[in-house]
Design a protein that fits this description.
The structure is a single chain. By secondary structure, the chain is of the alpha+beta class. The chain has one domain: q2cbj1_9rhob like domain (Jelly Rolls). Helix content is 15%, strand content 23%. A hairpin with a 5-residue loop joins β9 and β10. The chain is globular, with a radius of gyration of 18 Å. The chain starts with 7 loop residues before the first helix and ends with a strand. About 2% of the residues have low confidence.
């Protein structure tokens, strides 16, 4: 029988470290279905014809390199494909890998539009393959959410040999509410290891790393990273005595590697500093992740890069 929510010990661990690994959150049958659907999306739904060849870029210090074209900005209620920077031949500008091996991520409305991936967040999955999955809504309730809303979802492929590194970052930079409330639900669909680019975390950084910046829409189009004028911590964590300075965020000695087996769920506080290295191995690292924000008592900014669909962000509680 599926565990209903988190145990008090798990909640305490999450509150202490800012992340939590939940093993065996998805059963083998669900993993098989999700990986097959990922492959179908890459082989059948993804076509280069008419595709703008949008690369997913995490951006430099000024944020000017971050992806921000209309294909990206209009993906909040769509399922779209974003390419890996290293999948292109720098001399010709053309793909140097087969299209299925060139995709960095697929997003951002899988949780609503794709019936296979939607089963993860449903209270009652439509497929028996998800029987035994750890249900999502009780986890959100355990973490104190009153009105949890799923606002975006992604398959991240971390392709063999070319999967790019992701520098230290906080999810609330990209999915900001006032006050901050984002929590990431990150599922390993394949083993995530030190050699294929697993996550690493700075334990406890959610209490001392302010959300100093935000990814926002520019008035004339595109996106940029800009200073955050709003609260930099959730209400319960306001005004820590000591804060992590931006110059210290790259300190490798502070990070703990989070190797996990396929089927594991990793919960990530929106303020927690985390990163992943390049995948230089011959094995991929496909994961599925979605993010939840608090819909009660928070404000979602109209300048955020991601804007809600007409029906609003997806409720986890009926």
């Amino acid at each position: 029988m599926a565990v209903q929510g988190l145990t008090p010990e798990q909640v305490a661990s999450f509150e202490r470290d800012g992340y939590l690994i939940v093993p065996d959150a998805l059963p083998p049958a669900a993993l098989d279905a999700l990986l097959k659907e990922t492959q179908r999306l890459l082989e059948e739904d993804f076509t280069l014809e008419g595709h703008p060849l949008t690369k997913f870029q995490t951006g430099g210090d000024d944020g000017e390199e971050h992806v921000g074209d209309e294909y990206f900005l209009g993906s909040g209620d769509q399922v779209r494909f974003f390419l890996e920077e290293n999948a292109f031949n720098p001399a010709t500008g053309k793909l140097s890998k087969p299209k299925e091996r060139a995709v960095n991520k697929i997003g951002h409305y899988l949780h609503a539009l794709n019936p296979v991936f939607a089963d993860i967040t449903k209270s009652t999955p439509s497929s028996e393959k998800f029987a035994g999955s750890v249900p999502v809504a009780p986890i959100a309730r355990s973490l104190g959410f009153r009105d949890p809303r799923c606002l975006q979802s992604m398959i991240i492929c971390k392709q063999p040999e070319i999967g790019g590194a992701v520098p230290p970052h906080q999810d609330s930079t990209f999915l900001y509410t006032d006050p901050p409330s984002a929590v990431g639900f990150w599922y390993a669909l394949e083993d995530a290891t030190a050699t294929n680019g697993c996550l690493s975390f700075w334990p406890g950084s959610h209490k001392t790393a302010p959300v100093r910046n935000r990814l926002m829409r520019k008035a004339g189009g595109g996106t940029h990273i800009t200073p955050n004028p709003g609260p930099q911590f959730p209400t319960e964590l306001q005004s820590p005595a000591n804060v992590i300075e931006p110059s210290d965020e790259d300190d490798a000695s502070k990070y703990v590697m989070g190797e996990v087996k396929a089927g594991s769920l990793v919960l990530i506080h929106g303020n927690t500093l985390h990163k992943s290295e390049k995948n230089l191995s011959d094995k991929g690292r496909i994961i599925y992740t979605f993010h939840v924000i608090e819909g009660e008592g928070t404000v979602y900014d109209e300048k955020n890069w991601l804007q809600p669909p007409a029906e609003g962000f997806t409720k986890l509680f009926a």
